[in-house]
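Data availability excerpt. The first of two example chains:
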Amino acid sequence: MDEYCWPDERLVGRARAAWAATIESSPVGTSITGKVIGRQRFGVFVRIDGVPDALGLVEVTALPCGTSLPAVGDAVVGEVLWHAAHNHQIRIRPSRH
C-alpha cells in the first residue's frame, strides 16, 4: 500500500447523498470516534462511528505540533469543528491527549 491513499470512491458518493442527515446527526461540537480510511499530505480521512455514510477529515494543521499523520486503520477521537458543504465532509478537531 502507498503511504498516501484516498477513501473508497463509493463512500464519497454516499457522503454526498447523506449530507443533510450527516449534519443533523453530527452538529458542530459533537464528540466523535472513527477510523482512518485514507491519508494525504494535507490530512487523514475518517469514517465516523455511528454515521456510516459520513466522511470526516482531520487536517494536518489541526494536529499537535510535531505529530505525524495517523495510519490507515488508526482510531481517531475528536469533535466536529465545522461542516464543509462544498465537498460534503465533516472537519474534525482531534482530542489532545
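And the second chain:
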Amino acid sequence: MATTSDIRNGLCIKYNNDIYKIVEFLHVKPGKGPAFVRTKLKSVTSGKVIDNTFPAGRKIDDVRVETHKFQYLYSEGETYHFMNEQDYSQIQLQKSALDVPELMKEGEVVTIIINSEDSMPLSVEMPASVILEVTHTEPGVKGNTATNATKPATVETGASVNVPLFINEGDKIKVETTKGTYQERIKE
C-alpha cells in the first residue's frame, strides 16, 4: 500500500477494478481546506484517460511492476510486435497499450512495463525523444523566417509534426514523444 505522497509519473495503481498508469499529477495545497492531489490516469487495458482527485494522505493500491527493454519489430493492423532484448522472446500488444504508436519506427527500443504478479504487459514507454526523417513537407518561403511560424511535415512513420519553415524533405528531426512536438534538426 502506498499513499498520495508516493504518486509519481508512470506509477501503476489499482483503481475502480482496473489498473491505471499515472500520466500527470499535481499536489495542491489551497489556502483554505485540506491538501489534495489532482491526477490524470490512463487505463492500461482500454487506453481511456480520466481525471481524478485524491485527498492528501489517502492510501492507494500500487501495482508491483518490472520493466524490460524491447525492440519494436513491426505492426499488423492494430497488433504491434516486440522482441525482448535479453532472451529474444516476442510479445504482441494492441495499439491501445501504446502512448504514441505513430512516432515509433521499426528497430526502436522501448521500455515495456510488466505486472510482476501475472506477467501481463501493462504499457509501453517510449524514449523521451526519437529521431525521424522528414518524408514530405512544403518548401519554406524565403524571408518568412522572422516569425515563429511552423508548417506541417510528414515523418517516416507517417505521423504529422509541426516544424519550423527551414526544415526540408530528407532532414532528420528530433521529436519529443510526450507531446509529439519538434525539438531540433539533427545535423549529419
